[in-house]
Amino acid sequence: MLKTNDRSVVEFILECQPGYPKYSRHWEVDRHGVPFILPSIGGITLNMQVGDSAFGWAGDHLEPGVSCTADTQKPFEHPNNSLQAYSCVGNKARVISGDAKGAEGVVLGHHGGSEHVIVDFPREAKEKLTYDDKIIIFARGQGLKLVDYPDIVLFNLDPELLKKMNVRESGNGKLQVPVTTIVPAACLGSGIGSLHVATGDYDIVTGDPESVKKYGLDRIRFGDFVALMDHDNRFGRDYHQGAVSIGVVVHSDCLVAGHGPGVTTLMTCSEPLIEPVIDPHAGIADLLGIGTQAK
């Protein structure tokens, strides 16, 4: 078992509420110059969940599950910026008001721009939720470290989820991490250059059909773990040969140029110390038995 400092990791209770679906009030234009008006970020999304394909939806930047915010009027200010920074993938969530009171969910990740924390709940719970209901998140994960691998940095990762990711020590100072997809640096776009990865995401660009086919990008599901090659996320999102980052897919494919399925960072290193291992079941739906894999 990997040695971590999990006993030293701080746990907060954070409070939030579902954020209403957003509308840009004008036409959007896709990467081919075609205008569109379609569903996008935000909402209590009933028919999307972890384990579903991130492709094929009639929308753009869609967030599966429940898009949560601490303050819908001030998305870039306190307390919403704290909600974004301290909510980690795999954290437990619980509804504490309304007809859905007591329902439990799991944090999928966070989406930059919308400044939403995305939480997966069963459909029966989502049907009872309103936009006035309150949700608490048991936030734990920022500050988590791998004791024997100081050059591999963790972000946004619940310690209990790390234990279930089937990460293996290869014996040569490297870790083998199961992922569904290996993404080359050329297929990474919007979000590059961000100064840190404790909030937000960045996108796997899907504008080139040949690359989508070659790398199997259109098989990506919500909640899948993916490897981002030659990208160092330690101090922001940056291209660096030999670097490897691991993330989780948090929003759908996109129509606009430079965008595609969004990824929240979980692990990163500046040298090739992470060895991605293809596993079609490497995702939180399968590991946690939620979403499409709920029993």
CATH homologous superfamily grouping of the largest domain: tm1086 (SG structure) domain
How many distinct domains? Answer: 2
Strand order of the largest sheet: 1-5-8-7-6-9
Instruction: Calculate the terminal CA-CA distance, rounded to whole Å.
Output: 27 Å
Largest sheet entry? 6 strands, antiparallel, barrel
Tell me the β content: 25-35%
The helix tally amounts to 5
Give a short summary of the structure.
With 295 residues, this protein is mostly beta strands. It has helices at 80-86, 123-126, 159-164, 209-215, 284-288, and strands spanning 11-18, 28-29, 35-36, 44-45, 65-69, 92-95, 104-111, 116-120, 135-140, 153-154, 168-169, 175-179, 181-183, 202-203, 225-232, 238-251, 262-269, 274-278. The protein has two domains: 6-140, Thrombin, subunit H; 153-293, tm1086 (SG structure) domain (tm1086 (SG structure) fold, 3-layer Sandwich).
Q: Could you explain how this protein is built, in words?
A:
- By secondary structure, the chain is mainly β.
- The chain has 2 domains: 6-140, Thrombin, subunit H (Beta Barrel), CATH 2.40.10.170; 153-293, 3-layer Sandwich (tm1086 (SG structure) fold), CATH 2.102.30.
- It is built from 5 helices and 18 strands.
- It has a 6-stranded antiparallel beta barrel.
- The two termini are 27 Å apart.
